[in-house]
Amino acid sequence: MRIIVGNVNIKDHKDNIFRLRRNELRTEPLRAHKVARVVKLLFGSQVDLNDYAQLLTTVGARNSIFFATIRDELIMCIIARREKRFTESFLYLYRILEYTSVAFPMLYALSHQNFSGSFGFLKSLVSDGKQGDLKVLSKALPTMAAQGNLDGLLFDFSVAGYDVELVRKIRNELNSAVKPAVSNMEFDYQGDILFRVPFNDMSHLFATLRNRMFHYRNDERNIDLVKLGGAETVCELCIDELFYWFCLVYTVSLSS
Questions:
Q1: Is residue 29 part of a domain?
Q2: What b/e readout covers 62-79, taking b as 16+ CB neighbours within 10 angstroms?
């Protein structure tokens, strides 16, 4: 969480130091290192230090490899974005999403006070037994979003400073290749916002972008990356909002 709120220094294998100071949750800056301040920022008055300590010694301690993997992948994602390697950052984030897509709903289920509540929630996610991992997360999002008061949140994808002709090409490609799979994706034809996507549809957007850029299916409309000058154009446009969304999902999974 300190990585997400921009409160750490990172040293790589070449002893380069990266000072992470960007709060990806877009809340107040966090400068102190005290655990109490992190807990207050994330959970407000709903969770105290004793509750947080219990979380660390139960869920955290038993799943230390899982959380360490998330930590390392997050660092690679952030550093790649910081160094303007946007396609690489996009793919790291997608790897994390695949890795956590089933675990996040499981963490959320722990918030229920009884087994019947947890069981009912988890059972609803795999009712036909044929859902893939990302579809499990997609089905869980409306419930998680409502609990965290995030279901009304819209993500704005800005093209401020982009060339007008490039914006037109991006809109045409996304409208043809992505919007059919993301029903609530809405284009804005005035101002700097190219399109908006609600919280609950962000996983569909993420998966569709990845598939239409990096899976070439002859029977489906793929994004013409040649017209856009490569994947960097789309990944740079989308990575900040996708990362913000992921951080919110991570937080609500732990704090609900």
A1: no
A2: eeeeeeeebeebbbbbbb
CB neighbours of 87 closer than 8 A, spacing ≥ 6?
230, 231, 232, 235
Cα–chain-centroid distance for residue 255?
16
CA 57, chain centre distance (Å) = 25
For the beta carbon of residue 16, count every other beta carbon within 10 angstroms: 9
Query: Beta-strand (E) ranges in 119-192?
Result: 154-158, 186-187
Query: Strands, DSSP E only, in 27-183?
Result: 154-158
Return the residue matching tokens 């869920």: 59
256 domain-assigned? yes
> In 10 A of CB 214, how many CB atoms?
15
Residue 181: CA atoms inside 13 Å, Cβ hemisphere, count? 18
Quick: pLDDT tens for 143-190.
Answer: 888 878 898 999 999 999 999 999 999 999 999 999 999 989 999 998
Residue 151 lies in a domain: yes
pLDDT digits (tens, 9 = 90+) for 20-78: 999 999 987 766 666 666 666 666 666 566 666 665 666 656 678 888 899 999 999 99
- Give the three-class secondary structure for 198: strand
Query: Which uninterrupted H or E stretch holds 14?
Result: none
Domain extent for 223: 118-256
Place of tokens 């300190």: 2
25 found inside a domain: no
Total domains in the chain come to 1
